[in-house]
């Protein structure tokens, strides 16, 4: 071979089909690859890998791509990260230069958004270095100190870079609600409220029923929230909020109940309309607007339904109460809270004056029929025991 080609030859490597030897850096990235077939199964893991111009060691991901149920894609546009369950920043032969490309292409912002939504971001070697707050490079690019992705995403570094380093980018701790998706906030709020009612851990089935989603969806979100240390999950025992998760949930709940009261008192909406509106708005108001709403309302302690509004420090003033259904004939009390949010029921109760602040007396109780008669402002009304159980009376 040396005589034929004029080039030094050390040996001969026989050609074998599907040998799958690593090629040099990215030279073979666009060549036909042996595939494991399309991802299949109930849960497909979508992995988006940034297709860096100077990508290296890209075959690190071949084993992952060969797994059943894994859809591995190389991304060059921000929209290609939109549905990713995992984002990977691979190794690179020029970290600073490829970080510049990542920013110019819009992928850097997309990576930050996915991290903020709780999607894991994995960095390998040079990709891991990109996840730092700053990169010090006086050799390769001679660029000196360069801001990394954590400076862009307003996060703190969690580990040190090193040769062949691998690490992940966690969601950002400053202003937790801003960095956590609305869907996550809904789950945290539901765990808080269900946990208060149950007096302990919350089952995935209870969460699914509360949020109107499948148990599989709940399981997936619980894993994400557990990874973010917003809740803890013990199999067969349910979930509980961590201190940070409770802080986020209380903040969202404060927004919700302040909005409900503001919509009733200043926009003239009825108490049966405001729950759905507050659900939509609670994720999007700033802390400044929250403070202005609270000040306008006189720093209230309860919403239109009588539910306690968390203070800025998370504390709540809750009045001890018992269900109306537990009162004996002849007993009376003041309504402090209505727990049901069904529109038709709230309209029914409002028409009969059964709302927080009203005085109600039990006139008759038919336990076999499941109905009780109550008197409000001289008028008598029939109530099912089930409905009366959701009306709380000051103890």
What can you tell me about this protein's structure?
The chain is of the alpha+beta class. 34% of the residues lie in helices and 20% in strands. It is built from 15 helices and 17 strands. The strands form five sheets. A six-stranded antiparallel beta sheet has the order 12-17-13-14-15-16. Strands 3-1-4-6-9 form a five-stranded mixed beta sheet. A hairpin with a 6-residue loop joins strand 7 and strand 8. Helix 8 (182-198) packs across helix 9 (204-211) and helix 8 crosses helix 11 (243-265). The protein is elongated.
| Inertia-based shape | elongated
How much beta, percentage-wise?
A: 15-25%
Our measurement of the CA-to-CA distance between the termini, rounded to an integer number of angstroms, reads: 98 Å
Give the strand order, joined by hyphens, for the main sheet.
12-17-13-14-15-16
Approximate helicity band: 25-40%
Low-confidence stretches: 32-37, 154-178
Would you tell me the structural class of the helices and strands?
Answer: alpha+beta
Topology record:
Layout: H1 2-5, E1 45-50, E2 55-56, H2 62-65, E3 70-75, E4 86-89, E5 91-92, H3 95-104, H4 107-116, E6 121-124, H5 126-130, E7 134-137, E8 144-147, H6 149-152, E9 166-169, H7 176-179, H8 182-198, H9 204-211, H10 215-227, E10 231-234, E11 238-241, H11 243-265, H12 274-281, H13 287-296, E12 321-323, E13 332-338, H14 343-351, E14 359-366, E15 371-376, E16 379-384, H15 385-388, E17 391-394
Parallel strand pairs: 1-3, 1-4, 4-6
Antiparallel strand pairs: 2-5, 6-9, 7-8, 10-11, 12-17, 13-14, 13-17, 14-15, 15-16
């Amino acid at each position: 071979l040396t005589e034929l080609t004029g080039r030094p030859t050390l040996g001969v490597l026989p050609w074998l089909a599907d040998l799958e030897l690593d090629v040099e850096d990215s030279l073979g990235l666009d060549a036909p690859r042996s595939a494991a077939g399309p991802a299949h199964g109930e849960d497909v893991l979508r992995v988006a890998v940034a297709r860096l111009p100077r990508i290296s060691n890209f075959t690190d991901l071949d084993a992952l791509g060969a797994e059943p149920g894994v859809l591995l894609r190389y991304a060059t546009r921000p929209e290609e990260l939109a549905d990713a369950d995992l984002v990977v920043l691979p190794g690179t032969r020029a970290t600073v230069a490829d970080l510049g490309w990542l920013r110019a292409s819009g992928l850097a912002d997309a990576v930050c958004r996915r991290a903020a939504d709780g999607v894991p971001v994995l960095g390998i070697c040079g990709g891991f270095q990109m996840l730092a707050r700053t990169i010090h490079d006086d050799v390769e690019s001679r660029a000196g100190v360069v801001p990394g992705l954590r400076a862009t995403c307003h996060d703190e570094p969690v580990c040190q870079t090193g040769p062949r380093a691998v690490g992940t980018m966690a969601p950002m701790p400053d202003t937790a609600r801003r960095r956590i998706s609305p869907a996550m906030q809904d789950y945290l709020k539901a765990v808080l409220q269900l946990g208060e009612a149950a007096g302990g851990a919350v089952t995935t089935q209870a969460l699914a029923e509360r949020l109107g989603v499948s148990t599989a969806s709940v399981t997936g979100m619980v894993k994400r929230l557990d990874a973010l240390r917003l809740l803890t999950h013990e199999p067969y025992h349910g979930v509980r909020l961590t201190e940070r998760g409770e802080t986020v949930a209380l903040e969202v709940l404060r927004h919700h109940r302040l909005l409900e009261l503001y919509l009733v008192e200043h926009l003239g909406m009825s108490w049966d309309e405001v729950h759905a509106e507050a659900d939509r708005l609670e994720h999007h108001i700033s802390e400044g607007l929250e403070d202005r709403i609270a000040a306008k309302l006189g720093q209230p302690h309860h919403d239109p339904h009588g539910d306690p509004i968390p203070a800025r420090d998370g504390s709540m003033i809750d009045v001890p109460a018992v269900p109306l259904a537990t009162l004996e004939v002849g007993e009376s009390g003041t309504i402090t809270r209505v727990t049901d949010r069904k529109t038709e029921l709230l309209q029914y109760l409002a028409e009969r004056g059964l709302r927080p602040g009203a005085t109600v007396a039990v006139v008759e109780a038919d336990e076999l029929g499941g109905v009780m008669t109550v008197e409000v402002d001289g008028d008598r009304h029939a109530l099912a025991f089930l409905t009366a159980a959701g009306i709380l009376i000051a103890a």
